[in-house]
Design brief:
The protein is built from 22 helices and two strands. It is an all-alpha fold. It has one domain (3-503). It has a two-stranded antiparallel sheet with strand order 1-2. Strand 1 (57-59) and strand 2 form a beta hairpin. The protein is globular, with a radius of gyration of 24 Å. The mean pLDDT is 84.
């Protein structure tokens, strides 16, 4: 690429970068998500007072019952807020699920298994496949949650330099794979547990018995991880590789420790042990489920409606615990039984910020449900869409746009879904669109713009890694490479969702077909 072309490309980004700068300034003025939900609870109290005074109500077509707005500032409302505070928190659907899952994930992470898996995914890959291997490893890395950024971004630089390519490109591929594809993975992740719990709470506004499991979007997530890794590969090789030609690595940049990509003998031994343990665990689980009278099946012998899927968090935790223990024993990172509870405790300590946020979210959602405002909005919104003759794809695209814009400012996926889910899920249920589809749609919009928003702390982290190789790199440098990827992923991922919807492909085990 010539210097003139590079200059023209930079000028074409100025307008967008000004917008991103404005979003950054706006987002910096927002309070912490904890205080955001506290403020929203206060606003909700005032709104409920006004709507109750005006006698606002609606008839739920699913039950035929009238729903009237209730005043949160009334005597009953105040008693509800005080008496229910503890129950609101302890019975918050995602709380128990994510804590149980993290007990197992913590053992796998602290034993070194997850880091070894990520390193093995990008080590000794041929130059031809390094981009796809790194992108798909990014999808797998979502099981490690935010720790994936710290581990995989520098590994991406090492992997690309090891095959004679620009480490800058490796950083971009790793960062976008984790951030823009955050809600896609071939494995079940902690995010699945959080989102399914919030979706269940929202769906029960319409159907008190509705349950969305962490596997609700599993088939869609597997397909998404493969498709997104392919898109990242194509855009990187066809577009970004040329862009990086104008961004040479500084001549005095530190040399990379390419040996850190190579697994040590004890790590390879640990991975073999973990694989064997996973196979044995899966086989034992299958054998336990096979008998028609198995206690893991439902009362009618069903697997879809069964303790197995209903309590999948337990089995996920056991799976991570088993493979983490097997790896640690073989690799020498677990030397005594005391290490297991210590690892679990460390994992829960890292969950502390989320647990604090969950308290504010659980209170707001309980208040929101008690006032009936969310149900009224959903009923009236559904009626409006029906009377306007709006079809599924138009509704889908509208929600995509709204959530995508919100995600530029509110980057916490659980906080954002807690905010919009109680409206979108019941509204679409009244349009005969199952909650699992609404959740899958949200996952798309919640992910793609993570790679371009300056509000994400990991955008800044990726920029820091980039500046190790090119000190003059700035926000515009990184954005110029992440924007094409984010846009391509948003378009293709949306088309994949529509294919599932049009063809009636279930999004996950037991998930209904729209």
């Amino acid at each position: 690429m010539s210097s003139t072309e590079a200059a023209n490309g930079s000028r074409s980004l100025n307008g967008l970068l000004r917008v991103l700068g404005g979003i950054e300034r706006l987002g910096n003025k927002l309070p912490h998500p904890f205080w955001l939900f506290v403020i929203l609870a206060g606003v909700l109290a005032l709104v409920s007072w006004g709507l109750a005074a005006a006698g606002v109500s609606a008839v739920n077509p699913a039950s035929g019952k009238a729903v009237a707005a209730k005043n949160l500032l009334s005597a009953d409302g105040v008693r509800t807020m005080i008496d229910g505070a503890i129950d609101n928190y302890t019975s918050f659907a995602p709380l128990g699920t994510i804590l149980v899952v993290m007990l197992g994930v913590a053992v796998a992470e602290r034993s070194g298994l997850l880091a070894a898996v990520l390193r093995s995914g990008v080590a000794k890959v041929s130059p031809r496949w390094v981009t796809f291997a790194l992108a798909f490893t990014g999808m797998v890395s979502h099981v490690a949650s935010d720790a994936a950024y710290v581990v995989l971004i520098p590994l991406g630089a090492l992997a690309f330099r090891a095959v004679g390519r620009s480490p800058i490109l490796g950083i971009v591929v790793a960062f976008v794979s984790i951030s823009a594809g955050y809600d896609a993975s071939p494995l079940v992740t902690p995010v699945d547990a959080i989102l399914s719990g919030l979706t269940t709470a929202a769906a029960q506004t319409i159907d008190p018995n509705y349950v969305v499991t962490p596997l609700a979007n599993y088939f869609f997530s597997i397909a998404s991880s493969l498709v997104l890794a392919t898109v990242i590969t194509l855009v990187t090789e066809r577009v970004l590789a040329r862009r990086v030609e104008s961004l040479p690595v500084d001549s005095d940049a530190d040399e990379d420790d390419l040996g850190s990509l190579t697994l040590r003998p004890e790590e390879r031994r640990g991975l073999r042990a973990a694989l064997i343990a996973l196979v044995v665990f899966a086989a034992a689980l299958v054998l336990a489920v096979l008998p028609t009278g198995s206690p893991l099946r439902g009362e009618d012998g069903s697997i879809v409606q069964s303790p197995l899927l209903g309590s999948i968090a337990i089995f996920l935790a056991l799976a991570f615990l088993t493979v983490g223990w097997a790896y640690g024993r073989a690799a020498g990172t677990i030397t005594s039984s005391r290490d297991i509870p210590d690892f679990m405790a460390h994992g829960l300590r890292e969950m502390a910020p989320i647990l604090v946020l969950f308290f504010a979210i659980s209170q707001f959602l309980a208040f929101f449900k008690w006032t009936g405002i969310g149900e009224i909005i959903a009923i009236n919104g559904a009626d409006l869409l029906k009377s306007a003759g709006v079809s599924g794809p138009v509704v889908f695209l509208g929600i995509l746009v709204v959530v995508t814009v919100i995600n530029l400012v509110v980057t916490s996926g659980s906080a954002q879904w807690a905010l919009v889910g109680p409206v979108f899920v019941p509204m679409l249920m009244l349009l005969d669109i199952p909650p699992e589809y609404t959740q899958a749609l949200y996952r798309i919009a919640d992910s793609c713009t993570n790679a371009i928003t300056p509000m994400s702390p990991y955008f800044v982290m990726a920029l820091g890694f980039l500046q190790r190789y090119r000190r003059s790199a700035g926000i515009g440098t990184l954005a110029s490479m992440t924007i094409p990827l984010a846009f391509a992923l948003l378009v293709v991922w949306t088309l994949l969702f529509l294919v599932f919807w049009w063809l009636g492909i279930p999004l996950g085990p037991g998930a209904p077909v729209a």
